[in-house]
Amino acid sequence: MYKDKKVVFSGVQPSGVLTIGNYLGAIRSFADFSETYHCYYCVVDEHAITVRQVPADLRRRTYETLALYIACGLDPEKNTLFVQSHVSAHAELGWILDCYTMFGELSRMTQFKDKSAKNADNINAGLFTYPTLMAADILLYQSELVPVGVDQKQHLELTRDIALRFNQIYGDTFVVPDAYIPKETAKIMSLADPEKKMSKSDENENATVRILDPKDVIIRKFKRAVTDSGSEVRYAEDKPGVSNLISIYSAFTGKTVGEVEREFAGKGYGDFKLAVGEACADALAPVQAEFARLTADKAYLEDVMRKGSEAAAHDAARTMSKVRRKFGFTDLRR
Ligand code: AQP
Prior knowledge:
The protein is mainly α.
């Protein structure tokens, strides 16, 4: 879409207080793209309602997620920061793409299977078509790169398939995007069950470390983290709990896995867990301070939202006009 710069798009659902999984798997890398790409970072509130939300909480978390974007280093002058429901083209293109996505493809999505199991009393159509709305988010801006955690890989592959299908039928319409998945932190696991992904909507508070948790809470949660039998701090398939903690420690300190193993050779899990907690809390402290400053200024956040949604709506309209023309909707706006 931009002749001078390629486009990056990503989003986070305001479905809970963000975890270090969201941070290390996605948000932390967002700012790396700001200089060389045209970046759109969206608070995807329409995705969040596929699971029942308390309206007041959803509203507050939408502000908070935007504030966290900025606190994590995203400058609103260099990135288009906005809220999904403020740009109606997302829902509009989402519907169109629904008509180019097969029932069988959506049925294979593991996130749909997981979330339907978790929300058995509310397996709604939106939960099922979530990936086509996500495809719309990405394709609307002609994005080339989508920084996400590994849990979103399957949705990205579907997005590519939908774009290729559409382009094949109607000629070049969408850029076919690639996922950008950070290698070491692609999937941060739950502290209570290291076989399970850390998720912001997990009801077990001990399973997640939240970006906004105070230092003492962070340290307590790491102290309680489920580890494995034995006492050796070593990265190994049969030690999922300790390996997860090593990944987290390594991500916050910049040390390699080998360096971490050597640092804690001969020491027990207790020392190690304390060090992980301290490294995590120290790394998050500046983000928390900036977040507190930003959330005290609602007018500023609304200004960012307004400017971001105007810019995003303008750019999305260009793709929508192309899409409408290609498949034969009448368009009075030309
Ligand atoms: N545990 C994780 N490790 C690495 N990356 C993760 N992400 C999520 N959990 C981890 C990445 O964070 C980004 C935003 O995620 P999302 O809000 O779109 O939804 P999600 O993937 O469903 O994340 P959660 O925390 O599990 O939310 P809930 O509990 O609401 O379903 C994505 O790039 C995601 O890959």
